[in-house]
Design brief:
single chain, alpha/beta, Nitrilase/N-carbamoyl-D-aminoacid amidohydrolase, six-stranded mixed sheet, 15 helices, 12 strands, about 15% strand
């Protein structure tokens, strides 16, 4: 029982390493505790249960905002919403459980030293299952371990292998910390840990990309339309006026509105509003990006449309949110207990070109699409700037908006590009190519964030090679005991 409670508590405590808390030592300590529990597990089955409980603590504490979306804004009855949230978190916990079983089986068969087990086998198993969690059944890569290190030296590995490379470094650091604390090859482990941190710090100094072209003035609009009023017909005219005035008051060359800023299909929006928005952009010699639903025949999309001096262009969201934007086969009954407008979007094409606006080539993502690093990387190195349009008002005053901002910071660091985020209720922000937040608006406030953006040219190793190097290294770490035994 004590082991089970410790695993559950360590998983929950690891959430302190993610935003908005950003207390990196909590993540390092939590994964060191997990390594200790796995190293002391008597059987692979016990390691599986330990991993499940750690994952359950992590996801119950970290994605509790799912309940807010289902109950408060989706009108699902509280008991059913609580059960659905628990079931979702339990499903996600199966991946840490599988990682526990896998590392235990490797250790059981090849009997590596405890130092090798902690610093190599466990990180390899964790990252492989973390990648799998972000891939199968459309994937849910939220709270990947690497995000916890976004403000620390280990994040320097992001341009090399993305967030999974940072996860690998973090888990290895936790394993080495365990070795130092318990005296398992203490001095070699301490030296290796110092080298790992130093390498990350030096990599953060590397300039993988370079600014291109003149600085661009950008205006990110935050309308702060309450989610419960977003689709209220009585609020519609006020919403249009809010965004029209915000756009007309700026001299920015690129104006960005949030996801579904106008909650009606493009062909049903008042032409006068679109003319005002387009005129504001043209007056500044640039363009506006408008998040809006778009329909073509019987299909409709969560889209971004351009207005201004450039030719009209469209981007259709391709990574849809299960149950929020599409209903998986066999789950149609959920639509009878949820009240979510526009919840059955069509999927846009996977390979879409950057939008050519305001003298830049913009890689657009909508909502949690930016949690999938490779989806953005496909538009690079052609794209010079990253822009995300979101509406995280669905999750209220929860951890979700801050976690989403942390994810956006990782995308900027991976690609060596600035990331601009325009949201309905926050957090609207400008992020530098090094992953640092340059400016942001407060949550739940109407406003306009005026920033100077720079396009960037060039490609990081991650843009060129994707997740492959990190996954190959994870496999190599898992195979290390077998190779050592064979020698």
């Amino acid at each position: 029982m004590r082991r089970a409670l410790l695993a559950l508590a360590a998983g929950a405590a690891s959430v302190l390493a993610f935003s908005p808390f950003d207390f990196f030592p909590a993540g390092l300590a939590a994964f060191a505790v997990l390594a200790h529990l796995w190293l002391r597990a008597a059987t692979p089955r016990q390691a599986l249960l330990t991993g499940f409980l750690f994952g359950l603590g992590l996801f119950l504490a970290g994605v509790s905002w799912v309940y807010v979306s289902l109950h408060r804004f989706g009108a699902m009855p509280a008991p059913l919403a609580a059960f659905a949230t628990l079931a979702f978190c339990a499903f996600l916990a199966l991946f840490p459980a599988a990682a526990g079983w896998l590392q235990a089986r490797v250790a059981q068969r090849f009997a590596p030293s405890e130092a090798v087990h902690a610093a190599l086998v466990i990180p390899g198993a964790w990252v492989l299952l973390e990648w799998l969690r972000g891939t199968i059944l459309t994937g849910f890569p939220w709270l990947s371990a690497g995000y916890a290190a976004i403000g620390d030296p280990l994040a320097g590995f992001a341009p090399l292998g993305g967030v999974y490379a940072v996860s690998l470094a973090l888990l290895a650091a936790a394993g080495l910390l365990w070795c130092v604390a318990l005296g398992r090859a203490r001095w070699p482990a301490a030296g290796t840990l110092a080298l790992l941190v130093t390498a990350g710090a030096l990599l953060r100094l590397a300039a993988w990309t370079a600014p291109e072209g003149e600085p661009l003035r950008v205006s990110l609009l935050q309308g702060n339309v309450p989610q419960e009023l977003k689709f209220d017909p009585g609020r519609y005219a006020r919403t249009l006026e809010t965004y029209a005035l915000l756009a007309e008051e700026t001299a920015a060359r690129l104006i960005v509105l949030p996801e579904t800023a106008v909650p009606r299909f493009l062909d049903r929006i008042d032409r006068g509003f679109l003319a005002r928005l387009g005129q504001a952009a043209r007056r500044n010699g640039g363009d506006a990006l408008l998040g809006v639903p778009f329909r073509a025949g019987e299909a409709y999309f969560n889209s971004v449309v351009t207005l201004g001096i450039s030719r009209g262009q469209l981007y259709h969201k391709s990574q849809l949110v299960p149950f929020g934007e599409f209903v998986p086969p066999g789950f149609g009954w959920i639509t009878r207990v949820l009240t979510i407008p526009l919840s059955d979007f069509s999927r846009g094409e996977r390979a879409q070109r950057p939008l050519a606006v305001a003298g830049q080539k913009v890689a657009v993502s909508i909502c949690y699409e930016d949690a999938y690093g490779m989806r953005l990387a496909r538009q690079l190195p052609e794209a010079t700037l990253l822009v995300n349009l979101s509406n995280v008002a669905w999750f209220g005053d929860s951890l979700a908006p801050a976690q989403h901002l942390q994810i956006a910071r990782m995308r900027a660091l991976e690609t060596g590009r600035m990331m601009l985020t325009a949201t309905n209720t926050g957090i609207t922000a400008a992020i530098g190519a090094d992953g640092a937040v340059l400016a942001r608006l407060p949550q739940f406030a109407e406003g306009r964030l005026e920033v100077e953006a720079r396009g960037h040219a060039g490609a990081t190793p991650y843009v060129l090679l994707g997740d492959g190097p990190a996954l190959a290294l994870a496999l190599a770490l898992l195979a290390a005991p077998a190779l050592r035994r064979r020698r």
